[in-house]
Amino acid sequence: MKKDILKSLLFAFLGLGITTLTFAGASTAITVPDKPGFPLAINIWETGCQIKYRAPKNDGGNPVANYYIEYRNQWNLSWKFRGISKTTEYQFKEMKENTNAQFRVSASNSAGISNPSGISDFITFRGRF
Fold first, then answer.
1. What is the pLDDT of residue 64?
2. CATH number of the domain enclosing 80
């Protein structure tokens, strides 16, 4: 009888232990982040500008590692990759004076790359008057 009780307790303990480990091991799936906010040019000069954008509202359960910056000009509507930023700001340099450009940004985490942000308005690279 004592042996049966110990056997029952052992099975109950092992079952509880396995259940606890399974529950503790369960995790939330990590997904790609939401798209970042619209890029906004906050400082413009003859051959470049500085843009800012908001971090995604949802990082997908894992912090955003990088932001991928793209641009296009008014004559060529295909997007060109420009660079990577680890922050919510990016500085464009070596653009042609008196040309127009639009920007968009994507965010990435360990699950992948988000959809691109909304598209900025066209800005013109020129000095202050």
1. 98
2. 2.60.40.10
Please tell me the distance from the alpha carbon of residue 104 to that of residue 89, in angstroms, as a whole number. Answer: 12
> Over 62-88, what HEC string results?
CCCCEEEEEEEECCCCCCEEEEEECCC
What is the extent of the structural domain holding 49? 40-124
List Cα–Cα distances, 104 to 18, 33, 77, 100, 122, in angstroms.
Answer: 48, 15, 12, 14, 11
Distance CA 42, CA 28 (A): 37
Q: Is residue 3 part of a domain?
A: no
Is the model's pLDDT at 95 over the cut of 50?
yes
Task: Name the pLDDT band for 3 (thresholds 50, 70, 90).
Answer: low
